C-alpha cells in the first residue's frame, strides 16, 4: 500500500486521504447529529488501481468543493449521507463530470490545494441536502476563533467508523505552522492547538472548516505525529477563482 507520509521537503506532513482503505472518523471528536451538516459530500475516488476517499462540500447544486490532492481518474459523490456504509434513503449518488483543480496547485508544498467538481446533474436540495455559504474575498478568520470540521476520516492510526464525525478547532497564528516547509499564510490557515489530540485525519481531506455557518477552509494536511496544528486551504483567497469558474460553467 502506498504511504501517505510525504518525503522532503514536507517530511512532517500527512495527506488527509487514505488510498485503498475505508474511511473512519475525526480524531478527538464526536459523532455528528445525523444530517446536521447537510452540505457535506463523501467522495469515492478511483485513481488507476487505487481507491481513495475524501470529503467535500456542496456550494452550488452542481458543484462541490474539495482539495486538489483528491483528484483521480473517476469520482462519485454521495450527498445526504450520515453512515456511508448504508444505503440511506436520504443519499444522492452523483458522478462527477469535470474535475477542476487550481491551475497553480503544487503537489510538493500543497499550495493552492483546492478543486471544484462539476456534477453530472444537479443535486436535489431537501431536508438532507443543502448548500453552504462561502466567505467574501476580503474576510479573514482571526486567530482564537473557534471553528468546526467534519468528515468520515480515521479516528487514529488503526481505528475507524462509518458515521460522520465532527470536532471543534481553534484557528492559530500563522507562525505556529512555520514548521511546515512551504506553509503560505496567504493561501493557508493554521488550525488546532498543539497537543490536544483533536484534528482531521486520513479520509478527511477536502472537508470544510466552518466558522459561524460559513465555509472558511478546506482540510489539506496534518503533522505526521498528530501533535502540531493542521493546515487548511484559506478559502477567501480563492473566491475570485471560484466565481470565475462558476460563471463560465453556468
From TrEMBL:
One of its GO terms (cellular component) is cytoplasm. CDD domains: Tryp_SPc (cd00190). Keywords: Disulfide bond, Signal, Zymogen. GO terms for molecular function: serine-type endopeptidase activity. One of its GO terms (biological process) is proteolysis. It holds the Pfam family Trypsin. The keyword Signal applies. The keyword Transcription regulation does not apply. PROSITE patterns: TRYPSIN_DOM, TRYPSIN_HIS. This is Peptidase S1 domain-containing protein. It comes from Terrapene triunguis (Three-toed box turtle). The lineage of its organism: Eukaryota, Metazoa, Chordata, Craniata, Vertebrata.
Amino acid at each position: 500500500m502506498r504511504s501517505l507520509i510525504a518525503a522532503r521537503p514536507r517530511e512532517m506532513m500527512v495527506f488527509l486521504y487514505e488510498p485503498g482503505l475505508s474511511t473512519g472518523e475525526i480524531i478527538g471528536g464526536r459523532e455528528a447529529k445525523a444530517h446536521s451538516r447537510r452540505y457535506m459530500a463523501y467522495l469515492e475516488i478511483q485513481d488507476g488501481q487505487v481507491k481513495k476517499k475524501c470529503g467535500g462540500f456542496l456550494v452550488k447544486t452542481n458543484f462541490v468543493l474539495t482539495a486538489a490532492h483528491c483528484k483521480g481518474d473517476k469520482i462519485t459523490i454521495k450527498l445526504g449521507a450520515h453512515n456511508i456504509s448504508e444505503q440511506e434513503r436520504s443519499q444522492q449518488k452523483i458522478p462527477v463530470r469535470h474535475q477542476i483543480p487550481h491551475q497553480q496547485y503544487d503537489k510538493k508544498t500543497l499550495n493552492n490545494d483546492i478543486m471544484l467538481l462539476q456534477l453530472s446533474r444537479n443535486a436535489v436540495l431537501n431536508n438532507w441536502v443543502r448548500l453552504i455559504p462561502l466567505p467574501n474575498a476580503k474576510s479573514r478568520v482571526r486567530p482564537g476563533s473557534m471553528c468546526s470540521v467534519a468528515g468520515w476520516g480515521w479516528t487514529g492510526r488503526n481505528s475507524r467508523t462509518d458515521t460522520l464525525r465532527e470536532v471543534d478547532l481553534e484557528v492559530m497564528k500563522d507562525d505556529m505552522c512555520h514548521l511546515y516547509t512551504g506553509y503560505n499564510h496567504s493561501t493557508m490557515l493554521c488550525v488546532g492547538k498543539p497537543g490536544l489530540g483533536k484534528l482531521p485525519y486520513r479520509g478527511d481531506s477536502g472537508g470544510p472548516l466552518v466558522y459561524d455557518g460559513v465555509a472558511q477552509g478546506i482540510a489539506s494536511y496534518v503533522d505526521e505525529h498528530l501533535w502540531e496544528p493542521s493546515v487548511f486551504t484559506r478559502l477567501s483567497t480563492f473566491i475570485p477563482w471560484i466565481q470565475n469558474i462558476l460563471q463560465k460553467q453556468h
